[in-house]
Amino acid sequence: MVRTIKKDKTAGEKLKLICAECRIPQNHVVLTSMEDCIDESNFESQKSYQIVQCLNCEALCFRSEYDDSESHAYDMETGEDFHWTAVDIFPHRTAGRFKIKDSFLLPPIVRKAYDELVDAMNAGQTILAGLGIRVVLESICVDLKAEGDNLFKKINDLLVKGAITKSDVSILHKLRSLGNTAAHEAKPSSPEQLDLAMNVLEHLLLGTYLHPRLADTVFKT
C-alpha cells in the first residue's frame, strides 16, 4: 500500500454549497485542503479535508469528500452504473432547517438538547430526531420544574403552572407520542411529522424563553 498526503490540491476550487449564515445556496471557495490518497494493487481511495469560505458573507465551514475505486452503484431505473462521492459538511445544514435566531439565549440544558436535535434533523437521522423531540420536551420540563413521574404528567403540570396554554398541551402530547415511538419502537418519523414537530417546538421555545427575554431588552425603560 502506498499512502500520499497532498496539500492544497483543491485549493481555489469553487463550490456551490448551502451557507449556514446566508441560509441559501451560495458560491464557496476552498481556502486550503489536505488530500489523503491510498493506492493499493486493486483499490484506490482519496479523502479530501477542506476549509471552505462563503463568497457572499465570508463564513467558514469544514467539508470532507471521499471516493474510491469501488464507490459505484447500480441505478435500477436507468440500468446504468454510476460513481458516487460521499460529502459531509460541518456545521450540518439543510436548506430548510436552521436554528432559531438567538437560540444561544436558551437555558443551557434546553439549548444543548435543541442543538443536538437540529444536528440530527440536518443529518437525516429520523429516529434520533424523533427521540430528540422528546428530549427537548423533557429538558423544558426540567428547566421549568414541572412536577410528575412521567412526561405526560409533567406536560399537564406546565398548564397548571401557566407556562403553556390548553392548545399547547394537546399538541405537546402529540410530540410526546412521536418521541415514544422513536424511543420504544425504533421507528423513524416521516419528514412531514418532524418538520411540523420542529415548528411547534420552536414556537414553544420562542414564546417561553426568547420573546420574553428579548422584550425585556428591546422595551427596557
TrEMBL record:
Query: Pfam families from the entry?
Result: DUF4145 (PF13643)
Recorded hits in InterPro entries, A to Z, give: DUF4145 (IPR025285)
Q: List the protein's name.
A: DUF4145 domain-containing protein
Domain named DUF4145 is located at: 117-202
Superkingdom, taxonomy of origin: Bacteria
Lineage of the native species? Bacteria, Pseudomonadati, Pseudomonadota, Gammaproteobacteria, Pseudomonadales
